Amino acid sequence: MAKIDLLLGLQWGDEGKGKVVDALTPHYDIVARFQGGPNAGHTIEFDGKKFILHTIPSGIFNDNCINVIGNGVIIDAKIFKDEIDTLAASNVDIKDSLLISNKAHLITPTHRALDAANENALQKNKIGSTLKGIGPTYTDKTARRGLRIGDICSDDFRNRYENLKRIHLEQIRNLNFDMDTLLLDKMPFEEYEKTWFEAIEFLKQFQFIESEYFINKALDEGKRILAEGAQGSLLDVDFGSYPFVTSSSTIAAGACSGLGVAPSRIGKVFGIFKAYCTRVGTGPFPTELFDEVGEKLRKNGHEFGSTTGRPRRTGWLDLPALKYAVMLNGVTNLMMMKSDVMDDFQEIKVATAYNYKNNEIDYLPFDACTQTMTPVLKTMRGWNQKIENKIPRDQENYIEYIEKYVGVPITLVSYGPDRNEVIERPAKYSL
Protein backbone atom coordinates (compact mmCIF):
# COMPACT_ATOMS: atom_id res chain seq x y z
CA MET A 1 0.00 0.00 0.00
CA ALA A 2 1.39 3.38 -1.00
CA LYS A 3 2.15 5.84 1.77
CA ILE A 4 2.37 9.61 1.83
CA ASP A 5 5.78 11.09 2.68
CA LEU A 6 6.04 14.28 4.74
CA LEU A 7 8.43 17.19 4.66
CA LEU A 8 8.42 19.63 7.56
CA GLY A 9 10.54 22.26 9.28
CA LEU A 10 12.02 21.39 12.65
CA GLN A 11 12.84 24.85 13.98
CA TRP A 12 10.98 28.20 13.97
CA GLY A 13 10.38 28.21 10.23
CA ASP A 14 12.56 29.54 7.39
CA GLU A 15 14.51 26.28 7.28
CA GLY A 16 14.57 26.00 3.48
CA LYS A 17 11.64 23.65 2.91
CA GLY A 18 10.74 25.11 -0.49
CA LYS A 19 14.09 24.23 -2.02
CA VAL A 20 13.94 20.65 -0.77
CA VAL A 21 10.36 20.11 -1.95
CA ASP A 22 11.36 21.45 -5.36
CA ALA A 23 14.35 19.08 -5.45
CA LEU A 24 12.28 16.07 -4.34
CA THR A 25 9.30 16.71 -6.61
CA PRO A 26 10.65 14.73 -9.61
CA HIS A 27 10.27 11.64 -7.43
CA TYR A 28 6.57 12.33 -6.72
CA ASP A 29 3.32 12.52 -8.66
CA ILE A 30 1.57 14.88 -6.23
CA VAL A 31 2.75 17.58 -3.82
CA ALA A 32 0.16 18.62 -1.24
CA ARG A 33 0.33 21.56 1.18
CA PHE A 34 -1.43 20.69 4.45
CA GLN A 35 -1.49 23.77 6.74
CA GLY A 36 -0.69 27.44 7.19
CA GLY A 37 -1.39 30.36 4.92
CA PRO A 38 0.35 33.33 3.29
CA ASN A 39 2.37 33.88 6.46
CA ALA A 40 4.66 31.22 4.98
CA GLY A 41 7.33 32.03 2.42
CA HIS A 42 9.01 29.15 0.60
CA THR A 43 11.92 30.35 -1.54
CA ILE A 44 13.03 28.45 -4.64
CA GLU A 45 15.96 29.41 -6.89
CA PHE A 46 16.99 27.87 -10.20
CA ASP A 47 18.34 28.98 -13.57
CA GLY A 48 19.18 32.37 -12.09
CA LYS A 49 15.57 32.99 -11.08
CA LYS A 50 14.13 33.36 -7.58
CA PHE A 51 10.54 32.63 -6.59
CA ILE A 52 8.83 33.03 -3.21
CA LEU A 53 5.69 30.94 -2.75
CA HIS A 54 3.22 31.81 0.01
CA THR A 55 0.23 29.54 -0.61
CA ILE A 56 1.02 27.45 -3.68
CA PRO A 57 2.84 24.12 -3.09
CA SER A 58 6.53 24.13 -3.97
CA GLY A 59 6.21 21.39 -6.58
CA ILE A 60 4.65 23.80 -9.03
CA PHE A 61 7.81 24.22 -11.13
CA ASN A 62 8.10 20.55 -12.01
CA ASP A 63 6.28 19.18 -15.04
CA ASN A 64 3.90 16.25 -14.63
CA CYS A 65 3.36 17.02 -10.93
CA ILE A 66 -0.10 17.78 -9.52
CA ASN A 67 -0.17 20.31 -6.68
CA VAL A 68 -2.91 20.26 -4.05
CA ILE A 69 -3.82 22.94 -1.51
CA GLY A 70 -5.32 20.88 1.31
CA ASN A 71 -8.19 21.54 3.67
CA GLY A 72 -5.82 22.60 6.47
CA VAL A 73 -4.55 25.57 4.47
CA ILE A 74 -6.10 29.04 4.68
CA ILE A 75 -6.19 31.26 1.59
CA ASP A 76 -6.28 35.02 1.08
CA ALA A 77 -7.76 35.36 -2.42
CA LYS A 78 -5.99 38.64 -3.15
CA ILE A 79 -2.56 37.41 -2.07
CA PHE A 80 -3.18 34.16 -3.95
CA LYS A 81 -4.00 36.04 -7.17
CA ASP A 82 -0.88 38.21 -6.78
CA GLU A 83 1.18 35.04 -6.46
CA ILE A 84 -0.38 33.55 -9.59
CA ASP A 85 0.20 36.80 -11.51
CA THR A 86 3.87 36.83 -10.50
CA LEU A 87 4.33 33.28 -11.74
CA ALA A 88 2.48 34.06 -14.98
CA ALA A 89 4.87 36.96 -15.61
CA SER A 90 7.66 34.37 -15.67
CA ASN A 91 5.65 32.13 -18.01
CA VAL A 92 4.74 29.66 -15.28
CA ASP A 93 1.18 28.49 -15.98
CA ILE A 94 -0.30 26.48 -13.12
CA LYS A 95 -4.01 26.46 -13.90
CA ASP A 96 -4.10 22.80 -14.94
CA SER A 97 -1.69 21.52 -12.29
CA LEU A 98 -3.19 23.15 -9.17
CA LEU A 99 -6.16 21.74 -7.26
CA ILE A 100 -7.75 23.39 -4.21
CA SER A 101 -9.71 21.74 -1.42
CA ASN A 102 -13.30 22.85 -1.07
CA LYS A 103 -12.73 22.76 2.69
CA ALA A 104 -9.78 25.20 2.79
CA HIS A 105 -10.81 28.33 4.71
CA LEU A 106 -10.74 31.89 3.37
CA ILE A 107 -8.89 34.81 4.94
CA THR A 108 -11.17 37.83 4.54
CA PRO A 109 -10.08 41.49 4.61
CA THR A 110 -11.57 41.91 8.09
CA HIS A 111 -9.55 38.91 9.32
CA ARG A 112 -6.46 40.93 8.46
CA ALA A 113 -7.89 44.07 10.07
CA LEU A 114 -8.73 42.11 13.22
CA ASP A 115 -5.21 40.67 13.27
CA ALA A 116 -3.78 44.21 13.26
CA ALA A 117 -6.22 45.32 15.97
CA ASN A 118 -5.36 42.37 18.21
CA GLU A 119 -1.62 42.92 17.82
CA ASN A 120 -2.01 46.64 18.49
CA ALA A 121 -3.97 45.92 21.68
CA LEU A 122 -1.15 43.73 23.02
CA GLN A 123 1.27 46.70 22.95
CA LYS A 124 4.53 45.53 24.59
CA ASN A 125 3.35 41.91 24.66
CA LYS A 126 2.98 41.54 20.89
CA ILE A 127 3.13 38.00 19.52
CA GLY A 128 5.01 39.10 16.41
CA SER A 129 2.18 38.31 13.98
CA THR A 130 2.79 38.62 10.24
CA LEU A 131 -0.55 40.50 10.15
CA LYS A 132 -1.85 38.24 7.38
CA GLY A 133 -5.04 37.35 9.28
CA ILE A 134 -3.87 33.85 10.19
CA GLY A 135 -4.94 33.77 13.85
CA PRO A 136 -8.42 35.30 13.34
CA THR A 137 -9.11 32.95 10.41
CA TYR A 138 -8.24 29.83 12.38
CA THR A 139 -10.26 31.26 15.30
CA ASP A 140 -13.35 31.52 13.08
CA LYS A 141 -12.68 28.02 11.77
CA THR A 142 -12.83 26.54 15.27
CA ALA A 143 -15.76 28.84 16.17
CA ARG A 144 -17.64 27.24 13.24
CA ARG A 145 -18.39 30.48 11.43
CA GLY A 146 -15.60 30.56 8.84
CA LEU A 147 -15.98 30.80 5.08
CA ARG A 148 -14.50 28.06 2.91
CA ILE A 149 -13.41 27.82 -0.71
CA GLY A 150 -16.49 25.77 -1.57
CA ASP A 151 -18.70 28.60 -0.30
CA ILE A 152 -17.49 30.92 -3.08
CA CYS A 153 -19.88 29.29 -5.53
CA SER A 154 -22.96 29.48 -3.28
CA ASP A 155 -25.73 32.00 -3.95
CA ASP A 156 -25.57 33.46 -0.44
CA PHE A 157 -21.78 33.91 -0.29
CA ARG A 158 -21.94 37.72 -0.19
CA ASN A 159 -24.51 37.68 2.62
CA ARG A 160 -22.41 35.26 4.65
CA TYR A 161 -19.37 37.47 4.07
CA GLU A 162 -21.23 40.57 5.28
CA ASN A 163 -22.46 38.76 8.40
CA LEU A 164 -18.93 37.71 9.29
CA LYS A 165 -17.66 41.21 8.52
CA ARG A 166 -20.14 42.73 11.00
CA ILE A 167 -18.87 40.42 13.75
CA HIS A 168 -15.27 41.39 13.00
CA LEU A 169 -15.97 45.13 12.91
CA GLU A 170 -17.67 44.92 16.30
CA GLN A 171 -14.63 43.14 17.72
CA ILE A 172 -12.33 45.76 16.19
CA ARG A 173 -14.37 48.60 17.72
CA ASN A 174 -14.15 46.93 21.12
CA LEU A 175 -10.36 46.96 20.75
CA ASN A 176 -10.44 50.75 20.11
CA PHE A 177 -8.64 50.31 16.81
CA ASP A 178 -8.93 53.06 14.19
CA MET A 179 -9.76 51.42 10.84
CA ASP A 180 -9.00 54.69 9.04
CA THR A 181 -5.30 54.22 9.81
CA LEU A 182 -5.22 50.67 8.45
CA LEU A 183 -3.44 49.83 5.22
CA LEU A 184 -3.60 46.34 3.74
CA ASP A 185 -0.89 45.82 1.12
CA LYS A 186 -0.56 49.64 1.09
CA MET A 187 -4.28 50.09 0.36
CA PRO A 188 -7.12 51.52 2.48
CA PHE A 189 -9.55 48.85 3.66
CA GLU A 190 -12.30 49.56 1.13
CA GLU A 191 -9.89 49.42 -1.80
CA TYR A 192 -8.35 46.19 -0.56
CA GLU A 193 -11.81 44.69 -0.06
CA LYS A 194 -12.68 45.51 -3.68
CA THR A 195 -9.54 43.80 -5.01
CA TRP A 196 -10.27 40.84 -2.72
CA PHE A 197 -13.67 40.28 -4.31
CA GLU A 198 -12.11 40.56 -7.77
CA ALA A 199 -9.66 37.87 -6.68
CA ILE A 200 -12.55 35.70 -5.46
CA GLU A 201 -13.90 35.73 -9.01
CA PHE A 202 -10.40 34.91 -10.29
CA LEU A 203 -10.28 31.88 -7.96
CA LYS A 204 -13.29 30.33 -9.66
CA GLN A 205 -11.20 29.35 -12.69
CA PHE A 206 -9.37 26.74 -10.60
CA GLN A 207 -10.62 23.26 -9.86
CA PHE A 208 -12.07 22.85 -6.37
CA ILE A 209 -11.99 19.25 -5.14
CA GLU A 210 -12.87 17.00 -2.22
CA SER A 211 -9.18 16.71 -1.47
CA GLU A 212 -9.41 13.95 1.13
CA TYR A 213 -11.01 11.63 -1.44
CA PHE A 214 -8.54 12.72 -4.11
CA ILE A 215 -5.48 12.06 -1.91
CA ASN A 216 -6.66 8.68 -0.63
CA LYS A 217 -7.71 7.50 -4.09
CA ALA A 218 -4.30 8.49 -5.42
CA LEU A 219 -2.63 6.45 -2.69
CA ASP A 220 -4.85 3.47 -3.52
CA GLU A 221 -3.68 3.78 -7.12
CA GLY A 222 -0.04 3.70 -6.03
CA LYS A 223 0.67 7.37 -6.70
CA ARG A 224 3.67 8.90 -4.94
CA ILE A 225 2.64 11.84 -2.74
CA LEU A 226 4.72 14.36 -0.79
CA ALA A 227 2.99 16.46 1.87
CA GLU A 228 4.52 19.89 2.44
CA GLY A 229 4.31 21.73 5.76
CA ALA A 230 4.77 25.43 6.45
CA GLN A 231 6.38 27.34 9.35
CA GLY A 232 8.26 25.06 11.78
CA SER A 233 7.64 22.48 14.49
CA LEU A 234 8.65 24.87 17.28
CA LEU A 235 5.78 27.14 16.17
CA ASP A 236 3.15 24.40 16.52
CA VAL A 237 0.03 25.64 18.33
CA ASP A 238 0.22 22.77 20.86
CA PHE A 239 3.91 21.95 21.14
CA GLY A 240 5.63 25.17 20.15
CA SER A 241 6.79 28.07 22.33
CA TYR A 242 3.22 29.02 23.28
CA PRO A 243 1.87 31.71 23.05
CA PHE A 244 4.55 32.75 20.54
CA VAL A 245 3.31 30.24 17.98
CA THR A 246 1.28 30.03 14.81
CA SER A 247 -2.39 28.99 14.83
CA SER A 248 -2.17 25.59 13.14
CA SER A 249 -0.56 22.21 13.69
CA THR A 250 2.83 22.35 11.99
CA ILE A 251 3.94 18.84 12.97
CA ALA A 252 3.39 15.47 11.29
CA ALA A 253 0.00 15.03 12.96
CA GLY A 254 -1.17 18.15 11.15
CA ALA A 255 -0.70 16.41 7.81
CA CYS A 256 -3.31 13.82 8.77
CA SER A 257 -5.94 16.41 9.67
CA GLY A 258 -4.81 18.88 6.99
CA LEU A 259 -5.18 16.39 4.14
CA GLY A 260 -7.57 13.78 5.51
CA VAL A 261 -5.20 10.82 5.62
CA ALA A 262 -4.89 8.20 8.35
CA PRO A 263 -1.69 7.96 10.47
CA SER A 264 -1.14 4.45 9.11
CA ARG A 265 -0.68 5.96 5.63
CA ILE A 266 2.33 8.09 6.60
CA GLY A 267 5.65 6.87 5.18
CA LYS A 268 8.95 8.74 5.37
CA VAL A 269 9.19 11.94 7.38
CA PHE A 270 11.82 14.35 6.08
CA GLY A 271 12.87 16.86 8.74
CA ILE A 272 14.48 20.10 7.54
CA PHE A 273 16.76 22.21 9.75
CA LYS A 274 19.37 24.91 9.33
CA ALA A 275 22.97 24.32 10.42
CA TYR A 276 22.29 27.16 12.88
CA CYS A 277 19.05 28.71 14.20
CA THR A 278 16.92 31.71 13.26
CA ARG A 279 13.65 33.13 14.48
CA VAL A 280 11.36 35.96 13.35
CA GLY A 281 9.30 37.87 15.91
CA THR A 282 9.20 37.47 19.65
CA GLY A 283 9.45 34.32 21.76
CA PRO A 284 12.18 32.31 23.49
CA PHE A 285 15.44 31.67 21.64
CA PRO A 286 18.01 30.23 24.09
CA THR A 287 20.98 30.23 21.67
CA GLU A 288 20.35 33.70 20.25
CA LEU A 289 23.47 35.76 19.54
CA PHE A 290 23.54 39.52 20.03
CA ASP A 291 27.16 40.06 18.98
CA GLU A 292 29.14 40.27 15.76
CA VAL A 293 28.85 36.50 15.31
CA GLY A 294 25.06 36.75 15.21
CA GLU A 295 25.32 39.61 12.74
CA LYS A 296 27.70 37.57 10.61
CA LEU A 297 25.19 34.71 10.47
CA ARG A 298 22.48 37.17 9.46
CA LYS A 299 24.66 38.76 6.76
CA ASN A 300 26.09 35.51 5.36
CA GLY A 301 22.69 33.83 5.38
CA HIS A 302 20.69 36.83 4.08
CA GLU A 303 18.42 36.28 7.05
CA PHE A 304 15.43 38.49 6.36
CA GLY A 305 11.87 37.17 6.32
CA SER A 306 10.64 36.19 2.83
CA THR A 307 7.10 37.17 3.84
CA THR A 308 7.67 40.12 6.18
CA GLY A 309 11.16 41.31 5.24
CA ARG A 310 11.97 41.55 8.94
CA PRO A 311 15.56 40.80 10.07
CA ARG A 312 15.68 37.33 11.58
CA ARG A 313 17.18 36.70 14.99
CA THR A 314 20.17 34.37 14.70
CA GLY A 315 21.96 31.91 16.97
CA TRP A 316 23.75 28.59 17.29
CA LEU A 317 22.09 25.25 16.59
CA ASP A 318 19.91 24.11 19.51
CA LEU A 319 20.18 20.32 19.77
CA PRO A 320 17.67 19.71 22.62
CA ALA A 321 15.06 21.63 20.59
CA LEU A 322 15.98 19.73 17.42
CA LYS A 323 15.72 16.38 19.20
CA TYR A 324 12.31 17.43 20.57
CA ALA A 325 11.05 18.20 17.05
CA VAL A 326 12.44 14.89 15.76
CA MET A 327 10.51 13.07 18.50
CA LEU A 328 7.23 14.90 17.82
CA ASN A 329 7.36 14.19 14.11
CA GLY A 330 8.83 10.70 13.98
CA VAL A 331 11.51 11.99 11.60
CA THR A 332 13.17 9.29 9.48
CA ASN A 333 15.57 11.48 7.47
CA LEU A 334 17.20 14.79 8.39
CA MET A 335 18.23 17.41 5.84
CA MET A 336 20.64 20.15 6.88
CA MET A 337 20.26 23.48 5.07
CA LYS A 338 22.49 26.56 4.62
CA SER A 339 25.65 24.91 5.88
CA ASP A 340 27.56 27.22 3.53
CA VAL A 341 26.62 30.18 5.73
CA MET A 342 29.30 29.02 8.18
CA ASP A 343 31.97 28.24 5.56
CA ASP A 344 34.27 30.95 6.92
CA PHE A 345 33.80 30.13 10.63
CA GLN A 346 36.92 28.88 12.38
CA GLU A 347 34.86 27.57 15.28
CA ILE A 348 31.22 26.68 15.71
CA LYS A 349 29.17 26.22 18.85
CA VAL A 350 26.14 24.05 19.45
CA ALA A 351 23.77 23.85 22.45
CA THR A 352 23.65 20.44 24.14
CA ALA A 353 21.58 21.39 27.23
CA TYR A 354 20.18 24.36 29.17
CA ASN A 355 20.83 25.87 32.59
CA TYR A 356 17.31 26.23 33.99
CA LYS A 357 16.35 27.08 37.59
CA ASN A 358 19.86 26.16 38.77
CA ASN A 359 19.71 22.77 37.08
CA GLU A 360 21.07 21.44 33.80
CA ILE A 361 18.35 19.97 31.60
CA ASP A 362 18.19 18.59 28.05
CA TYR A 363 14.48 19.12 27.34
CA LEU A 364 12.07 22.01 26.69
CA PRO A 365 10.06 22.76 29.85
CA PHE A 366 6.46 23.99 29.96
CA ASP A 367 7.45 27.48 31.14
CA ALA A 368 10.27 28.03 28.63
CA CYS A 369 8.64 31.31 27.57
CA THR A 370 8.75 32.84 31.04
CA GLN A 371 11.94 31.40 32.52
CA THR A 372 15.56 32.16 31.68
CA MET A 373 17.26 29.27 29.90
CA THR A 374 20.99 29.65 29.30
CA PRO A 375 22.43 27.23 26.74
CA VAL A 376 25.23 24.83 27.58
CA LEU A 377 27.47 25.14 24.54
CA LYS A 378 29.93 22.72 22.98
CA THR A 379 32.64 24.26 20.79
CA MET A 380 33.65 22.48 17.59
CA ARG A 381 36.20 23.28 14.92
CA GLY A 382 34.69 24.92 11.83
CA TRP A 383 35.48 23.64 8.35
CA ASN A 384 36.62 27.14 7.32
CA GLN A 385 36.43 26.44 3.58
CA LYS A 386 33.96 26.68 0.72
CA ILE A 387 31.91 23.54 0.13
CA GLU A 388 31.98 22.28 -3.45
CA ASN A 389 30.26 18.94 -3.98
CA LYS A 390 32.17 17.34 -1.12
CA ILE A 391 31.70 17.57 2.63
CA PRO A 392 34.91 18.65 4.43
CA ARG A 393 36.15 16.44 7.27
CA ASP A 394 35.41 19.02 10.00
CA GLN A 395 31.89 19.50 8.69
CA GLU A 396 31.45 15.73 8.64
CA ASN A 397 32.39 15.71 12.33
CA TYR A 398 29.72 18.36 12.98
CA ILE A 399 27.13 16.32 11.08
CA GLU A 400 27.98 13.08 12.86
CA TYR A 401 27.74 14.77 16.25
CA ILE A 402 24.24 16.03 15.43
CA GLU A 403 23.18 12.58 14.17
CA LYS A 404 24.29 10.83 17.33
CA TYR A 405 22.61 13.42 19.56
CA VAL A 406 19.18 13.27 17.89
CA GLY A 407 19.30 9.64 16.71
CA VAL A 408 18.40 10.20 13.05
CA PRO A 409 20.63 10.20 9.95
CA ILE A 410 21.34 13.37 7.96
CA THR A 411 20.89 12.23 4.36
CA LEU A 412 21.09 15.57 2.53
CA VAL A 413 23.27 18.65 3.02
CA SER A 414 22.52 21.92 1.21
CA TYR A 415 25.40 24.30 0.49
CA GLY A 416 23.72 27.05 -1.54
CA PRO A 417 20.36 28.46 -2.69
CA ASP A 418 20.16 26.74 -6.08
CA ARG A 419 18.18 23.50 -6.37
CA ASN A 420 21.35 21.70 -7.54
CA GLU A 421 23.55 22.79 -4.63
CA VAL A 422 22.94 19.72 -2.48
CA ILE A 423 24.97 16.72 -1.44
CA GLU A 424 23.21 13.42 -0.87
CA ARG A 425 24.79 11.56 1.99
CA PRO A 426 24.54 7.85 2.86
CA ALA A 427 22.74 7.09 6.12
CA LYS A 428 25.74 6.12 8.24
CA TYR A 429 23.86 6.41 11.50
CA SER A 430 21.82 3.32 12.29
CA LEU A 431 18.48 3.94 14.02
Descriptive tags:
431 residues, alpha/beta, ten-stranded mixed beta sheet, four-stranded mixed beta sheet, 11 helices
Helix-strand blueprint:
Blueprint: E1 4-9, H1 17-24, E2 30-33, E3 42-46, E4 49-53, E5 66-69, E6 74-75, H2 77-89, E7 98-101, E8 105-106, H3 109-122, H4 134-142, H5 157-174, E9 183-184, E10 187-188, H6 189-203, E11 207-209, H7 211-220, E12 225-228, H8 252-259, E13 266-274, E14 277-279, H9 292-301, E15 313-315, E16 317-318, H10 319-329, E17 333-337, E18 347-356, E19 359-361, E20 374-381, H11 393-406, E21 410-414, E22 422-424
Parallel strand pairs: 1-12, 1-13, 2-5, 2-12, 5-7, 6-8, 7-11, 13-17, 16-18, 17-21
Antiparallel strand pairs: 3-4, 9-10, 14-15, 18-19, 18-20, 21-22
Helix pairs in contact: 2-6, 3-4, 3-5
What would you say about this model in short?
The chain is α/β, with parallel strands linked by helices and about 425 residues long. About 30% of the residues lie in helices and about 20% in strands.
**Estimated share of beta-strand residues:** 15-25%
Strand order of the largest sheet: 11-7-5-2-12-1-13-17-21-22
Poorly predicted tracts of residues: none
Distance between the termini: 24 Å
Helix and strand content put the structural class at alpha/beta
- The average pLDDT score comes to 92
DSSP summary, beta strand count: 22
> What coarse outline follows from CA principal-axis ratios?
globular
Largest sheet entry: 10 strands, mixed
Fraction of helical residues: 25-40%
Total helical elements: 11
* C-alpha Rg (nearest Å): 21 Å
